[in-house]
Amino acid sequence: xxxxVGKVTLPYLYLLSATILLVGLLVLPFISGIAMSLQSMKxxxxxxxxxxxxxxxxxxxxxxxxxxxxxxxxxxxxxxxSTPFAYGAALLISSKFKQAFVFRGIFLLPxxxxxxxxxxLFRTMVDPAMGPVAKMxxxxxxxxxxxxxNANLALITxxxxxxxxxxxxxxxxxxxGMASIPDELYESAVVDGANGWKRFIHITVPLTxxxxxxxxxxxxxxxxxxxxxxxxxxxxxxxxxxxxLAVRLFKMSFINFDLxxxxxxxxxxxxxxxxxxxFYLKLSIGKDMEK
Amino acid sequence: MRxxxxxxxVKESLVWAAFLLIAIFVLFxxxxxxxxSLTPRFDNxxxxxxxxLEHYSAIFSRPEVWRxxxxxxxISFGTILIVLPVSLLAAYAIARFKFKGSQFSIVFxxxxxxxxxxxxxxxxAYMNFLHLYNxxxxxxxxxxxxxxxxxxxxxxxFILANPIGIEEAALxxxxxxxxxxxxxxVPMMTPGIVSVAVYIFIxxxxxxxxxxxxxxxxxxxxxxxxxxxxxxxxxxxxxxxNAIGILAMIPPVFFFLLFQKWFVAGLFGQQLK
Amino acid sequence: MxxxxxxxxxxxxxxxxxxxxxxxxxxxxxxxxxxxxxAKASVDWFADVxxxxxxxxxxxxxxxxxxxxxxIDVKSMSDFRAGIKDHDVLLxxxxxxxxxGLVGDFADLSNYVKKDFSKAELAExxxxxxxxxxxxxxxxxxxxxxxxxxxxxxxxxxxxxxxxDPNRAPKTLAELVTYxxxxxxxxxxxGNSDFYGLGMFFGPSRATIELYFAPLIWEYxxxxxxxxxxxASFASPAGVKxxxxxxxxxxxxxxxxxxxxxxxxxxxxxxAFVNEKIGISWGLGSYWISAVQDKGFASGVFPPSPEGRxxxxxxxxxxxxxxxxxxxxxxxxxxxxxEHKDLAWKFIxxxxxxxxxxxxxDAGLPLRASLxxxxxxxxxxxxxxKQAVSxxxxxxxxxxxxxxxxxxxxxxxxxxxxxSDIADTLKKAQDTYNAQYGGx
Lengths: 291, 273, 440
Known about the structure:
The structure holds three protein chains of three kinds.
Chain A: H1 10-37, E1 39-41, E2 47-49, H2 53-60, H3 62-94, H4 100-112, H5 115-126, H6 132-141, H7 151-179, H8 183-191, H9 196-207, H10 209-225, H11 228-234, H12 245-255, H13 259-290
Antiparallel strand pairs in A: 1-2
Helix pairs in contact in A: 1-13, 3-4, 3-7, 3-10, 4-7, 5-11, 7-10, 10-13, 12-13
Chain B: H1 6-37, H2 54-60, H3 63-96, H4 106-110, H5 116-129, H6 136-161, H7 164-172, H8 177-188, H9 190-206, H10 209-214, H11 223-233, H12 238-258, H13 260-267
Chain C: H1 2-19, E1 24-30, H2 40-56, E2 60-66, H3 72-81, E3 89-92, H4 97-103, H5 110-116, H6 119-126, E4 135-136, E5 139-140, E6 143-144, E7 150-155, H7 156-161, H8 173-189, E8 196-199, H9 206-219, E9 225-226, E10 231-232, H10 237-251, H11 265-274, E11 278-285, H12 289-294, E12 313-316, E13 331-334, H13 341-352, H14 354-357, H15 380-391, H16 401-417, H17 422-437
Parallel strand pairs in C: 1-2, 1-3, 8-11
Antiparallel strand pairs in C: 3-13, 4-5, 6-13, 7-11, 7-12, 9-10
Helix pairs in contact in C: 2-13, 9-10, 9-16, 16-17
């Protein structure tokens, strides 16, 4: 419920500080970034407008195709692994069990740890000399396996790490959604003869779809933008097999000093993010209308 | 009282098993890291021959570590200090006021989902223009901008959960809106504010990118930067790397566990008595 | 009474602030992190030089800035572009000088050199080809602090055990392979099961092309970048042969471990050698002389002494008939937007004083000619290194060296790890690179 405002300018005043920060530190750099992506700067500092030239150059590269593909795999792998796991964990912590509270704290740990730290933890586990995961794989395969220098295994490692970090977040949202589902719905379903699985599919899932959508949106976007963990794992290697768009941006802007191409990839990332946000909004508005 | 049947015990143990499985999945990397941080340098066995604190003492004996911790604290608390008032005002406006353009308030939540990494390059030039390059303020401001959406959203939920009657009563009594906010609304939302603060702290503490891009002096380095730097330089010294990783984990985990109940309730606007 | 006391103290403090001698602060940027053990010696060295400088220049304080070695040049360039003035002295890489030259973030030191280097002093430096590798278009953008070169080293005891003459170096690539195979067999038969004959490094790092790929392509009469056409040329037949050789080491002869494509350069080349996990190490850097001494492979060589010898370790040039090893240095430069250029130059002069520079652990081999004439530097041990210095080559002077290095390293990794077709992979990478950066 909202009540009317006496003075008209008051709400705008309240929003002023937030707006200044957003415009100054988000919108303006955003516009600069777009401008930079349309330019090409010679090392000497001379700036030249090339329109979509940078974009075209990227699209023709096979490396760029690999970057896009890796980004998609990274996101899909993360979401597909996280969602069922998150549902399972959410069901557990929403149950009436007294242990749920303690476990909930534990389950949220991966999300609270710094990405750099969790990268160190995982790299330790896959280290060929002393990592348990590496040793286990080597024993199963019969020969020494260097996980991070195998293109497929490296990508899998990065995805598993990301899923380990992300699922608690989704779990939390889902649990909140589940908490607001009235018990009567479940009880009447039991009366109607629905078993656990059916109850899950027909009641729990639809009624938590909002939370699932929002949390997946955020996880998707974080995963899309994540450069630091992959860089810390493999620097995008071996070859380009773990290089995602974000890693490419990081390398271009901060290692190779090609700021314009870096901005070009930045604009591409922004566009992809907007596409995801648009789909989410469309789906959630559609749902609201259904309701 | 009916005796609990076998079915009940089977179900209960299955649930326990599920809890434990997930807990193991979550805890294994962390516990392995802990084990590695306590293992002497060249011991590769599954169970280390002996436990040692050599890595931790090596870290603590370096004065720079305290500086990195300190810098991380400064940035984290600086961010909280700025985000809370700004977000509170904005959240209040969105929650309580009906005004032209209020549907655009969704922009506040959407914009910061844009890739910070893409915006960092122009930001460097901006910060320099404002003479803020290589200062804590620059990093704090960027942290602020990117943690605002969640903060605004969480605070909005808390405000909406406050009974509006009390606020109206205060206003009718002649209380100025700001006074009402500070003396009535905020105290009612203490769990919410604390949980927002914890969330912001965790985000700022764990952040690597902004400090990496916006400050050059090692005097301003934060913990994640230091760790990433060591990853390159310490190579195979997993003991040391894990030790400093574990140390870096302690503050966020500590605060989180302390305020866990409020934090979770806060995410979803549930009123906590 | 108290109020009076406070007022007096306050006034005194104000007076002190107003009349205190103003301090100028200059910044020196390097990549020696005090928290990293292996950098400790260099950190201490800088601390000494700074102390000397501050003592000789009262009123000036020096602040150190630490970056990672592969980010320091980019930080300088991007800060320059952003208009930041806050750097003075910086360490730099000559491989990136062409890029620095175009960006303009380093000051031209030729006038300083003309003014402050006597003829004798100039002769001290100019004998070495590395002296003008910091020059771009006649502007001197960096002063080298030493010479880094690399050599082939082998474990003498292991050679003897394998029936090889411990003092004889392999002279060709073919011999290298044979020797490595023999040593590997002898060690593995003795139970050292994860031992490999030859240590190489093919990780995602500049080191890969500088120390491994480029020297090989030179041996096969090619180059990674053609200075005439200003285009990358690593996909030539020479390049294909070089890549094939690298691949064969791992897959065909199996004398190099697969871990060569990952991990760190130090780990694969230095640590593995001193921990006796490899018998021959290719590309051991002159900056690791103190490290091998610490592990007992040599004695009396750091600091150099007339009794210096390497009893456990054999050194020689890389087994090339036509090729060369890679030489470079760490250079020191002055930021072009610095507001304290004269002071910065004074600091540099302090750094390169003979008595100081000889102790700089990361310098590698001394640059000053006079330092090579002492008995300590005339031992057989150092003679081998001197030979490596004189035959070494630098990287091609392309302004996009960083990207070139990464592209070639990535292509090589694809070849080694993903088993892709060599000629095809190299060609694709070369075309991509030239499309973006050809001509600079």
